[in-house]
Amino acid sequence: MNQTASWQAELNRIQWIALAIGGGALALAILVTLLNLVNPAQFFQSYLFAYLFWLGLALGCFGISMLHRMVGGKWGFVTRRILEAGAMVLPVMALLFLPLAFGLHELYPWAQPELVAAEEALQHRQVLYNPMGFLLRAALYLGIWIGFAYLLRRWSLAQDRTGDPAYAVRMRLLSRAGMLLYVLTVTFAAWDWAMSLEAHWYSTIYGVLFISREAVIGLAFAIALLGLLSRRPPLAEVVTPEHFYDLGKLLLGFVMIWAYIHLSQFLIIWAGNLPEEVTWYTARIRGGWGWIGRFLILTLFVLPFVLLLSRRLKFSIPTLSTLAAAIVLLYLVDLFWFIVPTFHPADLQIHLFDLLIPLGIGGIWVAAFVRQLKGQPLLPRYADAAPTSTQLQEAPSHG
Question: Is this prediction's pTM over 0.85?
């Protein structure tokens, strides 16, 4: 089950190339900003949307990993190492959060004293939305996510080494508590980091939109990468079209949940027709933003829904993995449509930083992910939540 030397060399090459591209792109964006060639506000606006996407991918892997620990299933066995490695990128994402701490004044109305003095609504929110409270809550969210991801990874590897079924029980119990905290912390983080960009708008379903988006991209990422890795041992000897069929059904379910929540928010706001609520949508359905919105409806719901209904497609490893990779990339566009109109409500604007900074953070994310992935065998030793008696007897010989 150990990876070959050539496979390790290939992973090392991918890791360093990704790090060079990501670090170079991010350093270039920072240098251009420091030289005042670009408005600092533009840097932080692009950085925020890019950061939220890549953080969401790590959180999606984390959430799907906990879901499998709770409910079981063959699909989780072959994606376990991918999901665990994705979740373990969270410490790197905690470091990458630091630039946002210097851009609060450029991003959030509640961090701008001149706006707070003129807006009664912002004055009422100062108890919750202030720089110190914002940063302390961010540290709490990231600490909880990293702590749970670390324990799940550690116990998963310990179970492989020892065959002790107690680790499976621990991971199931930890995932139950972790899933509850995951839902709460992601909801509050979405309110803090994204919804509070708007001075007056709010939505109680906003956090659930982020949770459903993370579930889709986390699962889609695992499917896309599994499609590539299934050509290599040891996964080539284990992965079957049935695994992808199960993953395809799960992906269809999450796509439908995401679309349902999106539609629910739209219908509630449309029915209420309150000026302070409709402004969020009016900025996103006019001009170029409206065309992106229509494009996303077609590519993130209509086409995936129709295609994933096909039994043949879900059994086709190349086709399903290609569709999953496209979904991950399209959700970057979705988050761009979600965040950037706040700063440019009049019409669509795409800045070079909107391409450069996602590439920069993405390169660092990929490098950190590959580092985690190559550190352990791609295939866990135990397919079941708890090892069988036969597996337990064999455990010492594989230690």
Answer: yes
